Amino acid sequence: MSQQPATAPVPDRQPLDEHSAASVLAYAADQRAKVDVLASVLEDIAAHGYPSPEAGVPWETARDAHLARLADEQPSVA
User: Fold this and answer.
1) pTM
2) CA 16: distance to chain centroid?
């Protein structure tokens, strides 16, 4: 995926207001960061192999910790 914005105008598009455009750009940056993390994990696995099961965290433990973090967050409107 290119990090460069499209340069040629695209027909049949409605421009976004400044706030909406900023929100879309922030979301794109967040998604790009998540994909970069995933790519680095996959590159590490390709270079070094799978981690041993003993070095990992059981999925139940990871799930419970994640749910606890979500419960501690302040409620917000999407």
Assistant:
1) 0.52
2) 23
